[in-house]
Amino acid sequence: MPTFPNIRHRRLRLNERVRRLVRENHLSVDDLIYPVFATFGQGVRREVSSMPGVYNVSIDLLLEEIKTVEELGIPGIIVFGVPEEKDEVGTGAYHPEGIVQQAVRAIKKEFPELLVITDVCLCEYTSHGHCGLINNHTVDNDATLELLAETALSHARAGADMVAPSDMMDGRVAAIRARLDAEGFTDVPIMAYSAKYSSSYYGPFREAAGSTPQFGDRKTYQMDYANGDEAIRETAQDIKEGADIVMVKPALAYLDIIRRIKEEFGYPVAAYNVSGEYSLVKAAAKQGWIDERSLVLETLTGFKRAGADIIITYHALEVARWLREV
User: Fold this and answer.
1) H or E stretch covering 317
2) Is 131 annotated as a binding residue?
3) In this structure, are residues 133 and 121 in contact, taking their beta carbons and an 8 Å threshold?
4) Into which family does the record put it (predicted)?
5) Residue 306: other Cβ atoms inside 10 A
């Protein structure tokens, strides 16, 4: 193989136009999904203190925000619910008049072409803050499956285009797929949180969604961050059970997992650029320690380079604007 001085790698870095010609990975607005937090009321817009620029919003103001999503060409959103009341069994998650169900109906009426994905979990709606039913201070996996399937079905009935179970219960993809199919929603895809780690990066989200566990932690159902092979097993099981898209969450500390899953399965892979990743950037940018735009674009391009096809990010509106300026 020729070596220096015959091979000069810097020739292809000469200027921006040459670099554009040989660029291997491209970040696009088509890659983005924007997370939103819907809550009850009118005229409600509460900023999440740990996530500058992210708000809990009532449906009327959420519709105004979605106008911007549409104008920027972002393909879709993922909806999280912030209920007024909670109980031991997370009734608000699957009630026909729950906040997500109402939000989805309103959004699809106003923006029928927007891709609306819904988070399927119980943690925002349970008084104990865990993602499933509690039996003797333990999350009861099998008893939870029916409620997750009921939640997904209620979202589909409201008009959701895709459901995204985030609970990490064993067998939940199969339970949801079976229930959707039995009720005639065979065309509603499942985006499974397949490799969801028990992570310290979730802290700000728990403030936004009011979903902090009231006892213990989620380590008995979310994955140990030291494990990689386990993520392959989890993903394989979700695909076998009927997942159409698989997800790695968080993204930044798990680029190796994104790469391994993409290479192993060749399935569409979503990377969730989670709340802690977002908040760290915002905090450093506020101090003037980083160039926020440059850092965010570099990070999200890194997700693409690792193998992600879809990026769920709170930066989506900013990124869509920045990409228009490139």
Assistant:
1) helix 316-325
2) yes
3) no
4) Belongs to the ALAD family.
5) 21
Of the candidates 103, 128, 126, 129, which has an alpha carbon nearest to the alpha carbon of residue 114?
A: 103
For the chain, domains (ranges, CATH) are: 26-325 (3.20.20.70)
Q: Is 177 annotated as a binding residue?
A: no
Catalytic one among 86, 109, 240, 249?
A: 249
Could you tell me the pLDDT band of residue 317, with boundaries at 50, 70 and 90? very high
User: What is the per-residue pLDDT for 2?
Assistant: 85
Partners of 119 in beta bridges: 164
What would the pLDDT profile of 145-162 be if each residue is shown by its tens digit? Answer: 999 999 999 999 999 999
pLDDT at 213: 73
Of 196, 262, 282, 304, the catalytic one is: 196
Residue 46 marked as a ligand binder: no
Q: Is 94 annotated as a binding residue?
A: no
196 is catalytic: yes
109 is catalytic: no
- List the single range of 81-85, 174-178, 216-220, 315-319 with lowest mean pLDDT: 216-220
206 assigned ligand-binding residue: yes
Any binding-site annotation on 234?
Answer: yes
Of 193, 120, 192, 185, nearest to 150 (Cα)?
Answer: 120
Strands 45-47 and 55-58: antiparallel
The total number of residues written for the chain in this structure? 326
CB 170 within 8 A of CB 198: no
What pLDDT, on the 0 to 100 scale, is given for residue 321?
97
CA distances (Å), 168 to each of 76, 194, 204, 256, 293, in order?
23, 7, 20, 20, 33
96-114 core/surface letters (b: 16 or more CB in 10 A; e: else): eebbbbbbbbbbbeebeeb
